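From the thread on structure requests for the teaching lab: each student submitted one protein with a one-line request. Submission from student K.M.:

"Model PTS glucitol/sorbitol transporter subunit IIC from Loigolactobacillus backii, tokens only."
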Amino acid sequence: MKYITGFASGFMNLFQTGGKTFITWMSTIIPVVLLLLVLMNTIISFLGEERMEKLAKASSRNPITRYMILPFLAAFMLGNPMSFSLGRFMPEFYKPSYYAALAQFNHTSNGVFPHINPGELFIWLGIAQGVQKLGLNTMDLAVRYLLVGLVMNFIGGWVTDFTTAYVCKTSGVILSKEVKLSVKEQGETDAA
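Reply posted by the TA:
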């Protein structure tokens, strides 16, 4: 009977801890993500879809801006998961690669910029605690992790380009490498 009550108590404790975590998120992470969503949509509305499309078109021209600069800016300014929403302005062909580079960057930058991925901060803090016990500086590790991650994320994004090209070729799917114009401009183009 002792084991059954211990199991039941532990089981209920799991849900109580989950409830406390949820309440913490309601007062910390969720409002931040919501406000970032509002900010990003406000900026896009203010600048206009056309300018965002031009930025995406310019960014998609070479792999360095596509898989190093744009993911860094998106992650730094919007954090995870909002940074993925900038991918909607990328051409269809580059969306998988952008996602691959950005998904990795959201993890490898957590030591220097903890606001990017607060949901996984516990992983970084666990590693940092071990480094601190060794008497080493955690910022040195964080910067190295960020720099190595930036290079590896770029490589991952670029390799995904080749993978996407191979899958398209073998399946006969054609993905555009051009940014789709806004509905207004498409109508004008079709009429011409």
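TA comment: The chain has a mean pLDDT of 81. The chain is about 75% helix and 0% strand.
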